[in-house]
Amino acid sequence: MTDEEQKEKIIELAEDTSVTEETPNTEETSPLDATAADDNGEINFNLSFKPGEIVERSIVDEMKSNYLDYSMSVIVSRALPEVKDGLKPSQRRILVAMNDLALTPSAHYRKCAKIAGDTSGNYHPHGEAVIYPTLVKLAQDFSTRYLLIDGQGNFGSIDGDTAAAMRYTEARMGKITMDLLRDLGKGTVTFVPNYDGTRLEPSVLPAAFPNVLANGGDGIAVGMATKMPPHNLRELINALQAMIKLGNSWEGNAVYNQLRRDKESKEIIPRTLNSKPEDYLENYVDTNDLEYPIKIKELREKIATENNSLYPEFKSEITPLDLIEIIPGPDFPTGGTIYDQNEILNAYATGRGRILQRAKATIVEGNQGRFNIVITEIPFQVNKAHMIEKMADLVKEKKLEGIADIRDESSREGMRVVIVLKRESQPKAVLNKLYKYTEMQKVFNANMIALVDQQPKTLPLKRILELFISFRITVTIRRYEFDLAEARFRAHILEGLLKALDMLDEVIATIRGSKTQETAKTNLMDKFKFTEVQAQAILDMQLRRLAALEKMKLQNEYNELQENIKTYNDILENPAR
What we know:
Blueprint: H1 3-15, E1 34-37, E2 43-45, H2 59-79, H3 89-100, E3 110-111, H4 112-122, H5 128-138, E4 149-152, E5 170-173, H6 177-181, E6 191-193, E7 200-202, H7 211-214, E8 217-220, E9 225-228, H8 233-245, H9 254-264, H10 297-305, H11 320-326, E10 337-339, H12 341-350, E11 352-358, E12 360-365, E13 371-377, H13 384-396, E14 403-408, E15 417-421, H14 427-437, E16 441-447, E17 449-452, E18 455-458, H15 461-502, H16 504-512, H17 517-528, H18 532-540, H19 548-573
Antiparallel strand pairs: 1-2, 3-5, 4-5, 6-7, 8-9, 10-11, 11-16, 12-13, 13-15, 14-15, 17-18
């Protein structure tokens, strides 16, 4: 079979929907399975026996049912990354805990024991001993392509050395992590209760870049395992731009636009002081000091009942062959060389494939007429010390001949393993045997499984990028909805302040004639038709605002807000721009 025929076969596999998004069948029936709730909101059970009656069940069926429940819990809550932000729950919770501690790239380092403790206590109740290794991996430049955590101290080495205890190491967030967290407090993602209901945590991060492909990842679940290779971020961005150019024309959703207009026509309802964040769990949950809730629960319910999508899904006409021209292959943090692009194309087109890696080695002339093989890069997830030990064992067993000495000259400047050859050795023959018998050559078995709407799916490269673009469309629209609501609320307050300054003497007289602050607020609302929010803002206004220059500043701010509101409305009415 020629290369062209092989590529055509791979494309046929990519177009076969049965190959792409595979989802395990987890539907099982049981006498105790619950059905939908009735009109009173009470759950009806399909009980095949009367209350108080003992029913014999096969232990095989019971074990099967319980094991499936357990396996789905492991798949969704522990082992597999989310396609939207590329993070497993433990990784996401570590970053959220660090964000709570304000450990930005410019902040001082904090002890990893503090970070692990906060993560365990607030979000991930599995103990610090489980959380710390996850944190360490995110800070290792040989494990993570783009470091999400900036570590200080001993975080292990490529030789298999373990990290120092968490009481000795320190960390803060990496620069690129801020792009994962960007706009987190702007209602862009849904927040859910943590394990004990004492606080809220994001179900996913806004993720301004496709971290699931940039950093890759691996995880072993029940009955499945994911092994996602890392990629070059610049190539991924170029691929996203190409996909958008070849994407469908996104006109928005008519139902969404109509409901948004209906929502905007309603009066702004200020949030009361005694309201709790949990009250808005089904709405946009804000983590900042917003003054009112952004109601969208009714909108989402109507969309769901009409079997329509709130945010239409993005599709692109780009082909795997087009993508591989932009993304020629993975980009592993340890470097190395990748061979056989047809296998890479197969992995990208189907979500599964073998990626052959080789160490980067050069043959140089040494002293006394000898040649040396110098290794500067090794395959991903290879322990350098074990690789050298394996070489030494093969030399002792005489499976590798022609090697006089092996030296590890690696330093902070980079990796350097020198293999000194005997005078009579053939350098290329020795190098080929090293590839054959040692981990200088290794296969990365890509199995690109990620969670899509809480379901594990095997995803080809194109589908992952489409899902990411769809997610970013949703994030962007929700951010503009948030900004629009904030701008309108601030403009509403400024309208009240400007109106009060125009009739300043009457307003002051009304306030002076009131016995209490609450009476003053009521009098302002009754006499001048101010809203409660405007009346409170007038009472809180400082005396310096009475100056003519300050009034001009308020007017300029109001005019700027009106321009912003117009821009936000235009974007939301025409999402394709």
